[in-house]
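User:
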Amino acid sequence: MTTEPNSASAGSNEDPLTDFSNCHVGIIKNFERLRTLSLTEIESPVQDDVKASAKKLYAFFRDVVLEHHSEEEQELFAEVKDSARKGGDDAAKALGMIDQLVREHRSLEAQWKAIESDIKQLSKGKLASLDQEAAGKLADDYLAHANFEEQEFLPLSAKLLGERGLSSLGLSLHMRHTHVSIPNYI
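Assistant: Predicted structure:
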């Protein structure tokens, strides 16, 4: 991950947990944008600001959020689970948090699917009947999810991972985002 708020690509920070935290900055910004959209009365023709906001949200969820979830689950959560094998109260707590966060990812993705086609229509300047209550709930739920990760999960992860686990996570993230072309040999 980079420190670019709307990106989920690997960066060069020495602490990979900081990369996840920095990604949350863009996530929070965009879900606040969704909250604003959920409170906006949409008119015909679709207002330019609504169209621009919907366009950003549609691309953001598709290009960043889904990749962020995948990266957390396949890299961060896997590394924390590995470190948790040592046992202890923190290990059990972290494993419970991981289960909760994965369930939240699936729930948030399902909530997005429910409004995605309307967001896409609005992004094209076409009138759509966006379920504003559902959009507001998604924004609130995602903001709560990101806050829980920031305040509870990432600090516990840092404690469990230690220097060795953080190095392993950093290497894993780097390899995930390194595109190496290997020629085929016959």
